[in-house]
Design a protein that fits this description.
This protein is an all-alpha fold. Helix content is 77%, strand content 2%.
Length: 538
């Protein structure tokens, strides 16, 4: 392409900035006298290669066609590109020195492309911090990865190695927030021995937190000595090093370990510590996370009205921040509480919002939980095809992130139960050899046994013994795990079994047990549902 006289250099610099670039920036980057720069810009405008937007000297120039920029960019040799990227980076530092925060990402990219990896790493650090403060955690993860890459291109002095450790820990922390647990572990795995070698102990609590998250959410070793040893070590070292983020995270994961094991009073104590610590520090994210986890714990152990209160408080705080990550978690906690209350319309509204918000922020844990409960809600409303679709979505997401294998196995069983009830040709073979220990999370075990009972109860009349055995297993499991709400549903299923067996007396007795439990533990909508079923037996 023939370029207008003197235009090529100017176009090349512009092509490295963006399709649109400010006059003040091109002036600082190209090192031409003002009159000569204006003459060349005028030529390019006359040739309709650029057009000007805004009032001079605050105007910007735009490539009229994106293809022009691409062609110009392609004319640059690699060495020249590097030189110009460095010139542009320095120009940005000068032109935007009063508002450099808005340019962190652009600066990082220019210095990265120019080969100044030390400066690139520093600007990637600031850009990632800015993204985290805006709860743009997916962006923060991408920026943190580039920071790590830049640092690892430098000569590996002890000082640089410590910066690599810092960068990888920060990357892991952002991954953990979105429940990208495997990615977080991959971030810290290369530095575990390095931390010991350099005696850089202040980063050990954060590394141990990542290991705890992996043990809990990928391997589901919530009752394992190693998991609790890590937690104790984090709490000891975090207090010594004044690493309050790791200390707060330890209370969060400790609460989850107890929650998975149905130790709800201990889980409550851990989440309350997180809440009090977050309140004292004025940390909204920690406060919302503590409240929504308390709400979820209260839903499981029968304090449903309290769950609704904490879920509402979490949502009010989240709405004030307009943060989709926090809103997704809070809507999810409210949806769970409304489902346990038996308020299905409100549950569906909140769970649907939870899916939307959690997807927007890529908060995979929020999406998984919401799909699980939306499926359970559709199942109760006899919308079996929709239930299966929710659990299909859950399983697809599990294949991507591989956290909570118990959720995936439970969803597989639930899919079969929905297929049997809805006559949707379920893959029954996936359930027939099921062992309850395949669902490691104890708070799900009673539900999983109920689902197996549903399958055998409605498969045909030849499997009533298996149905009885699984329903009795559900009752025993829920009694052992102190899960009163789930126990009530198990009794209601047992009533359905006796009704099918032609024994209305036993059916009534079990429905009475279900109603008594739901009334005591505040499941008002379920009380109404079971009372209607009881009336049909009179």
């Amino acid at each position: 392409m023939p370029w207008p006289e003197g235009a090529k250099e100017l176009l090349q610099v512009g092509s490295l900035i963006e399709r649109e670039f400010a006059y003040r920036l091109i002036r600082a980057a190209i090192h031409l006298p003002d009159q000569e720069l204006l003459r060349r810009l005028s030529i390019l405008k006359d040739a309709e290669l650029l057009y000007e937007r805004g009032l001079f000297p605050d105007s910007t120039f735009v490539f009229k066609h994106a293809l022009t920029r691409e062609v110009v960019y392609g004319t640059l040799l690699e060495r020249k590109k590097k030189e110009l990227h460095l010139d542009i980076g320095r120009a940005i530092e000068g032109v935007y020195k009063e508002n450099l925060e808005e340019m962190y990402s652009a600066l990082a990219e220019h210095f990265e492309e120019g080969g100044d990896y030390e400066k690139a790493a520093e600007y990637f650090r600031w850009a990632a911090r800015k993204a985290r403060r805006a709860s743009a955690f997916t962006e923060a993860i991408a920026l943190s990865k580039r920071r790590v890459t830049s640092l690892e291109r430098l000569m590996q002095t002890d000082e640089v190695k410590k910066k690599v450790i810092d960068a990888r820990v920060t990357l892991a922390n952002s991954c953990l927030i979105l429940n990208h647990i495997i990615e977080a572990r991959e971030a810290v795995a290369p530095i575990i021995d390095l931390v010991e070698h350099l005696d850089y102990r202040k980063r050990l609590p954060a590394i141990y937190i990542t290991m705890v998250a992996y043990l809990l959410m990928v391997e589901e070793r919530f009752d394992d000595d190693e998991t609790h040893r890590y937690l104790r070590e984090v709490q000891k070292r975090a207090q010594e090093e004044k690493d309050y983020l790791s200390l707060a995270s330890s209370y969060f994961y400790e609460g989850h370990a107890y929650f998975y094991d149905c130790e709800f009073a201990k889980a409550e104590a851990s989440f309350v510590r997180l809440m009090e610590m977050s309140e004292a520090a004025g940390e909204v994210i920690g406060l919302v996370v503590a409240k929504l986890n308390l709400a979820t714990a209260y839903s499981q152990d029968g304090r449903i009205d309290q769950a609704l209160v904490y879920g509402q408080e979490a949502l009010q705080l989240a709405l004030q921040t307009d943060d989709p990550y926090l809103k997704g978690g809070a809507y999810g906690a409210r949806g769970v509480a409304f489902f346990h209350k038996g308020m299905f319309l409100e549950a569906e509204e909140n769970l649907t919002m939870a899916v939307q918000m959690s997807k927007k922020s890529d908060f995979v844990g929020g999406v998984l939980i919401s799909f699980l409960y939306l499926g359970l809600l559709h199942f109760e409303e006899e919308r079996y095809q929709q239930a299966q679709e929710c659990w299909d979505d859950l399983l697809a997401l599990y294949d991507r992130v591989r956290i909570w294998p118990s959720f995936a196995r439970f969803a597989q069983i639930l899919k079969v139960a929905a297929g049997v009830r809805g006559r949707h040709k379920p893959a029954i073979d996936t359930a027939l050899n099921f062992d309850l220990q395949e669902v490691r999370l104890r708070f799900l075990q009673g539900w999983a046994a109920q689902a197996m009972g549903e399958i055998y109860l409605h498969m045909d009349d030849a499997h009533m013994d298996e149905a009885r055995a699984w329903i009795r297993q559900a009752i025993e499991t829920d009694e052992q795990n102190r899960m009163p709400w789930s126990l009530a549903r198990a009794y209601a299923l047992y009533a359905e079994f006796f009704k099918k067996m032609g024994d209305p007396g036993e059916a009534k007795e079990n429905l009475h047990k279900a109603i008594e439990l739901m009334r005591h533990y505040q499941g008002d909508g379920w009380v109404e549902k079971y009372e209607r079923e009881l009336a049909l037996l009179q």
